[in-house]
Structure to design on (224 residues):
């Protein structure tokens, strides 16, 4: 269980509550710290506060959802219906409005864990490429790929949108946890990823550049 919350009193109280309920809990006071925990520790549920000091919570929500199926419970002080609809569409599984009771958050987390047990497969299959978002592994024609954390995030994001052209701006916004990166960062990682897939930009098999638009991941043999 991961709690991403900048208020130390709330963070510690929720952490104690979840530990008392038998959960293994990690706490993060920043968005970047939380994103790191999601990719390296792979929690069962994320409790996400929206008012974080380094990144907007909605941006964090989108970035987690870009590469992970982990259930996300958003904790927010905003109770307008339009806001809740926006959060659910951005990838939240449920939300709880502050201030909330211990019983309420426990019940919502239990419901998410039950729902998570019956989720669709975490595997994405594109031709001979298989990406498992839960295990954070990828194979190509049955051979495991050795990918860095960011290479995996990039591949999982594109595989989840197979056949769709994704702009570099979208990739920067949803895959990279810092706004300071440039389009060059995307290009460098795409070059590394192509090497891992055994292809080149001039002779693509899976990663196809659509000039002036972006990048598309599609299986070999599919029309360009």
């Amino acid at each position: 269980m991961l709690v991403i919350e900048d208020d130390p009193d709330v963070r510690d109280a929720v952490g104690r509550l979840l530990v008392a309920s038998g959960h293994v809990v990690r706490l993060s006071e920043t968005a970047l710290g939380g994103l790191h925990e999601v990719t390296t520790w792979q929690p069962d549920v994320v409790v996400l506060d929206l008012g974080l000091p380094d990144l907007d919570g909605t941006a964090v929500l989108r970035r987690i959802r870009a590469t992970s199926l982990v259930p996300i419970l958003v904790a927010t002080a905003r109770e307008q219906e339009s806001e809740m609809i926006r959060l659910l569409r951005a990838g939240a599984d449920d939300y709880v409005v502050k201030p909330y009771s211990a019983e309420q958050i426990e019940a919502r987390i239990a419901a998410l864990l039950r729902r998570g047990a019956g989720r669709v497969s975490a595997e994405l299959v594109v031709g001979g490429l298989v990406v498992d978002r839960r295990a954070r592994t990828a194979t190509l024609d049955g051979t495991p790929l050795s990918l860095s954390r960011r290479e995996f995030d990039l591949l999982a994001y594109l595989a989840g949108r197979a056949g769709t052209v994704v702009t570099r701006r979208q990739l920067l916004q949803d895959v990279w946890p810092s706004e300071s990166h440039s389009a060059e960062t995307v290009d460098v990682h795409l070059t590394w990823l192509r090497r891992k897939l055994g292809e080149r930009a001039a002779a693509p098999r899976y990663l196809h550049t659509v000039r002036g638009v972006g990048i598309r991941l599609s299986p070999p043999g599919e029309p360009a």
